[in-house]
From TrEMBL:
Residues 1-16 form the signal peptide. Transmembrane segments: none annotated. This is NHL repeat containing protein. Keywords: Repeat, Signal. Pfam families: NHL. The keyword Repeat applies. NHL repeats lie at residues 235-270.
Length: 318
């Protein structure tokens, strides 16, 4: 079989980052069922320090833990039969996932307008932001939260997509603090409309990376600002189209799941123009349909969830 590679960024050693463009299925069998081997519109991905893969199995209303090399996943949040609900052991269309330093898992439970926290080895969540069935814009409410990230002090940062804002929830708080407010629905480039992916900036106490699904960009935002400081819109001459999850590698390269362009894009440090890593514009096999989530393991192998294919693919680093 012929293999293709693509160099996207140069790292400190002077060598380039390269991936095999022939992807291997590591989770899901393509069917949209709710059995242990199935996924149904998988989205946000997370890989822990032990290279265990966690998948937001969106339309199965659950989080699946997938050991690398396994053919079946294990449900660690929500119901294994894919049923939705608002109980402490249920989810409704989970959008994002993160872990804190104590191994607690946080899930943006989009359909229930809340964020749930799970102790290690527990399938019963505790609501730590918002409340089930109470969508709203008050500071103790959320509306379709998607992205979630937890810092070293256990502060929870949430892309509250339905409210067009980013909020911070301190540990054990009953109300959040609005950090970025896009509710004015501004039309200018760099304003906030539908925040999705969220990523903390190392060493910064007042800035984050955000992807905006409506405005089709990724940007650096300062808390309290009305417009992004820096924005990235294009890769290989083509505008982003509904970007979702964003992540960063150990070299400071920013990666974007460019959903409706069927590709993953990287923005190298100090560059405002992206390059395609896998997907449209490369010789990627299989052809990606709708990229939902991205993550790296400890060896910088790239994992991509495909919403339409109901699979997660692995692209090996070379």
């Amino acid at each position: 079989m012929r293999h293709f590679t693509f160099v996207v960024c140069v790292i400190a050693s002077g060598s380039g980052l390269k991936w095999n463009l022939t992807g291997v299925t590591v989770a899901g069998n393509g069917a949209s069922g709710h059995n242990a081997e199935n996924l149904n519109q998988p989205r946000w991905l997370y890989i822990d320090a032990n290279d265990i893969l966690y998948i937001c199995d969106y339309n199965n209303n659950r989080i699946q833990r997938w050991l690398l090399g396994a053919t079946n996943g294990t449900t660690v949040a929500g119901q294994s039969d894919g049923s939705a609900g608002a109980g402490s052991n249920q989810l409704h269309q989970p959008g994002g996932i993160d872990f804190d330093n104590n191994g607690y898992m946080y899930v943006a439970d989009s359909g229930n307008d809340r964020v749930q926290r799970y102790a290690p080895n527990s399938n019963n969540g505790t609501t730590v932001a918002g409340s089930a069935g109470n969508e709203g814009s008050a500071t103790n409410e959320l509306h379709q939260p998607v992205g979630v990230v937890v810092d070293d002090n256990f502060n929870i940062f949430i892309s509250d997509m339905g409210n067009k804002r980013v909020v911070k929830w301190a540990a054990n708080a009953t109300n959040g603090t609005i950090l970025i407010d896009g509710s004015s629905n501004g039309a200018a480039n760099g304003q906030l409309k539908n925040p999705y992916g969220i990523l903390l900036i190392n060493g910064s106490s007042n800035q984050i990376y955000l992807s905006d699904q409506n405005k089709d960009y990724v940007g650096i935002w300062t808390f309290g600002a009305g417009i992004a400081n820096t924005t990235w819109f294009t890769a290989n001459g083509t505008d982003l189209n509904q970007p979702t999850q964003i992540t960063m590698d150990r070299y400071g390269n920013l990666y974007v799941a460019d959903m409706n362009n069927q590709r993953v894009v990287v923005f190298c440090p100090n560059s405002t123009t992206g390059n395609v890593v896998v997907g449209t514009g490369t010789n990627t096999t299989p052809t990606l349909q709708h990229v939902g989530g991205i993550a790296f393991d400890s060896n910088l192998n790239l994992y991509v969830s495909d919403i339409n294919e109901n699979k997660v693919f692995k692209y090996a680093r070379l």
